[in-house]
Amino acid sequence: MTWESTVSERGSRLKRTLDAWLGRPFVLALALCRPRRKQPAVVEHIGILMLAAIGDSILASAIVHDLRRTFPTARITAFVSSANRGILDLLDGFDQVVEVPIGRPIAALALIRRFSLDLMIDIGQWARASALLAGLSRARFTVGFETAGQHRHWAFDATVEHSSARHEIDNFRALAGSLGIESAAVPRLRPGILAGLAPPVARPYIVIHPWASGYRFEFREWRIENWIAVAGFIIDSGYLVVITGGAADGARADALAARIQRTAEVAVLAGRANLCEAAAALAHARAVVSVNTGTMHLAALLDRPMLALHGPTNPKRWGPLSTRSVVIGPGRDQGGAYLNLGFEYPSSPVDCMAKITPAEVISRLRELLASSVSIEGTS
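^ that's the sequence the OP posted. Answer follows.
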């Protein structure tokens, strides 16, 4: 399983258009054919439909621990896509993970309907396809988001308003709240999942993750010249540079490493490491510098010192959940932080990532390294 796929449901305008035009009438027809049902008193099997990207999956996994506390004897199954299958192997709390062929909707539905579920929770924020899969499953009760303008909520027995005014983990917690569950848990790695995995290099290193994914991902990336400047500072400070990324990022990472020139001081994991190996690399890093993507959330879960570079992505909605993370990027008053669901770009987007300067990142990285050495030296 490779690390991070650049293909996801929000990454294709055509898929989103088809989802909207075909999905809405099907969702409405489902609602007209079946009245809303009551939550069952006995819950023995819970399904969580998690067809989203890695970052969403990490955040949403928090609620599994609240479900486990409320229904201690229930079995919990995660239904996932090929894009996020790898991260579910690392996350704690699930009894079973089932990969769903979302490119073949009929086969996907047939697979899900093999399971007799008491509850089905759909974490999808906007796609009608996942709402239909949940609504047409054999689950006795379904829960999902009512997202403004998306017309997907008709498929569910209980709905929760998807709010643009809170962090996404709190939206996911609200799904559990609709079941009468007080949700405050955080994501967790499976115990011992990284045990025995050595760092990718012997010397102290800093991870840089320049690559984003999804729809118009290029507007969430930082210019290569900026990464070269930051890499130079890292090497001059006595650290190696480790470049991470998904399978599709390997060629770009190799090109970046070549432009850094001091190739003996650079290691490329992009396109070479699986997700577990990449997580181990993050876990052993002295610090991480990453754009907003699933890798950023994974580094936050691992509690590594991190600079999280945000442009159009709103950190109040999608920022890293770690006290050791520092967010850098323009606010809404500077033309940034305007994305909510991930595709609300203006017709001619401005490169708001350009407002982040290498000098600012280097200054903040110097401060982060100094504070992390102090903290780890006293722990």
